[in-house]
Amino acid sequence: MASAFNRLREEIKKREECMRELRLTDPCDDKKRIEETKGGLLEDLYHWILENSDFQRWRDDAQCQLLWIKGDPGKGKTMLLCGIVNELKSSTAKRGLLSYFFCQATDSRINSATAVLRGLLYLLVNQQPSLVSHIQKKHDHARKALFEDANAWVALSEIFTDILQDPSLNSTYLIIDALDECAKHLPELLNFIVQNSSASSRVKWIVSSRNWPDIEERLKRAGHQVRLCLELNAESISAAVSKYIRYKVLHLAEDKKYDDKTRNAVLDHLSSNANDTFLWVALVCQKLKDIPRWDVLARLNTFPPGLHSLYERMMEQIRHSAYTDLCKRILASIAIVYRPITLKELASLVEMLEDMADDLESLRYIIGLCGSFLTIRGDAIYFVHQSAKDFLFTKAFNEIFPSGTEEAHHRVFSRSLQVMSKTLRPDMYSLGALGYPAEQVKQPDPDPLVALRYSSIYWVDHLHDWNSNSFANHAIDSQDKSDIENFIRKKYLYWLEALSLCRSMSEGVLAMAKLNALAQVITKVATLYIHGGHILVAG
User: Fold this and answer.
1) Which of 175, 190, 214, 236 is in Cβ range 3.0-4.6 Å of 100 for a Cys bridge?
2) Long-range contacts of residues 338-341, Cβ cutoff 8 Å, at least 24 apart
3) pTM, 2 dp
4) Which residue range or ranges hold the NACHT domain (predicted)?
């Protein structure tokens, strides 16, 4: 009996470890964050799609297993899918599975094909635990490397295909939002969707994206698909945007104490210029919050129709701001980081902000000066929309990156190295003993690593992306070379400790490999130290 109990306990432990290492993010949390960032999900704005004939055909016809929702930026695709998730969750609560994933190009953790499959698998197995056996038989041999090494896509796609063909799989809905924001291995993901969308009659798919020809070219190969183009449903979108405008103006009028004349003028201006774009309405209302009610009528015409025109207006305000250089530096930094960073992380990466590291109120105020390109959720900074980042990389590129993105990467790399060299020390958490179990480590308050987490994990990536040609041509600046060598000599082991305390050793191993390759053209001494680091980790 004891032996059987021990085997069961060991099996449970293995399953828990497998799920813990599979989890890159919880899509449920991502959905909640997205809804909160966008001001909440309003049922009136998405209910139209439930009555749409294309949606109903996909839902009711057993032969129609792939629904592709496509539309231009700002048309409400993501919130539409959030609403569909809620509706399907209600209908499948007792008899089916629902798994979904929201791609975000601005976050390297959730902008790849492997991340999509990991997120979908995580929710599926949480709902039908027996499916974990498909993952566990490979995980028992490879551990976390199964999800992260060079063959991760191959392994995950095979696992996913096996699950879709499992006779025990319940009726399943799979939803992927923003395919155009899958920055890594999108063609492989599209091919996977096409190949598997008709693999089982029990599985139905919904995907969304912008109107990208490359995506259309691949998805049209799928049989029995339904396309729902938002531009071809202009009447429904227009009605939904009108409801959204009334909702936003009602709350603005209450908060700002508008009189009837001001409220009606705002309502008319938004209705006449929105061009059926939710995002435009949201951005203008965000700006109106900062305008005193006595000045609203005079300022309404400063908000031009069209997203790009509005973004250009926002840039114009930044150009004439007393803080123009600071705002541009912040926008450049946020545009090139590999995940959303916190206010404290931003203060450590932008030298002009270092004196405000403990003044979160001032940091929030400065983010507010950046023309509504950015928004804050908790303490993390996000682009208000992918189209805002796209604008900075296209129309405003020369202003935001006057010396190119390489120079912006160099600034982040250089600041990261500075703050780590200054702050890292032995036993950052005062544990007092070697070999302390990682799962028992509790973050102290205040956490000495809170501003260093991003730098510790990603400084090597910025070093690499600063300009790989500099390494190839042996053109790296002597001061940078000296800083890197000094860091490796004096702080390397403390960096490894920081990675461990941040629960980011797997990312650290990848960074070490990349640093090792770069170090071979920097200094032989550095290479030896890094090889030693690999031996230390492996041993």
Assistant:
1) 175
2) 338/107, 338/108, 338/458, 338/461, 339/106, 339/107, 339/108, 339/109, 339/454, 339/458, 340/106, 340/107, 340/380, 340/381, 340/382, 341/380, 341/381, 341/454
3) 0.87
4) 65-290
Classify each residue of 447-464 as buried b or exposed e, where b means 16 or more C-beta atoms within 10 Å of its C-beta: bbbbbbbbbbbbbbbbbb
CA–CA separation, 118 vs 53, rounded Å? 32
In eight-state DSSP terms, residue 320 is: T
CA distance 339 to 334: 9
Say if residues 64 and 225 touch (Cβ distance below 8 Å).
yes
What are the phi and psi torsion angles at 176 (to 5°)?
A: -125, 120
Residues 6+ apart with CB under 8 A from 128: 97, 168, 169, 170
One-character DSSP codes across 37-52: HTT---HHHHGGGGG-
The span from the CA of 78 to the CA of 103, in Å, is 10
Give the three-state DSSP class for 177.
strand
The two tokens of residue 259 are: 């009189």
Q: Residue for token digits 């390397």?
A: 492
CATH number for the domain formed by residue range(s) 2-223: 3.40.50.300
Would you state the structure tokens that stand for residue 382, as one six-digit string?
Answer: 């996000």
Largest Cα–Cα distance of the chain, in whole Å?
81
Domain ranges, ordered by start, for the chain? 2-223, 235-303, 306-402, 405-539
Amino acid at 428: M
* 520-to-50, 473, 495 alpha-carbon distances in Å: 59, 13, 20
Q: What is the pLDDT along the chain (539 residues), one digit of tens a residue?
A: 556 666 777 777 888 889 999 999 999 999 999 999 888 999 999 999 999 999 999 999 988 999 999 999 999 999 999 999 999 998 876 779 999 999 999 999 999 999 999 999 999 999 999 999 999 988 888 888 889 888 999 999 999 999 999 999 989 999 999 999 999 999 999 999 999 998 888 999 999 999 999 999 999 988 888 999 999 999 999 999 999 999 999 999 999 999 999 999 999 999 999 999 999 999 999 999 999 999 999 999 999 999 999 999 999 999 999 999 999 999 999 999 999 999 999 999 999 998 998 899 999 999 999 988 999 998 999 999 999 999 999 999 999 999 999 999 999 999 999 999 999 999 888 877 666 666 677 888 788 999 999 999 999 999 989 866 555 554 567 788 888 888 988 999 999 989 988 888 888 888 888 887 777 666 544 444 555 444 333 33
Question: Which residue is it, tokens 């900062």?
Answer: 290
Residues contacting residue 36 through CB under 8 Å, at least 6 positions apart:
377
In this structure, the strands spanning 171-177 and 203-209 are parallel
- Residue 376, strand partner residues: 381
Handedness of CA 83, 84, 86, 87 (dihedral sign): positive
DSSP-assigned states of every residue in 375-404: EEETTEEEES-HHHHHHHHTTTHHHH-TT-
Q: Determine contact, residues 58/64, Cβ cutoff 8 Å.
A: yes
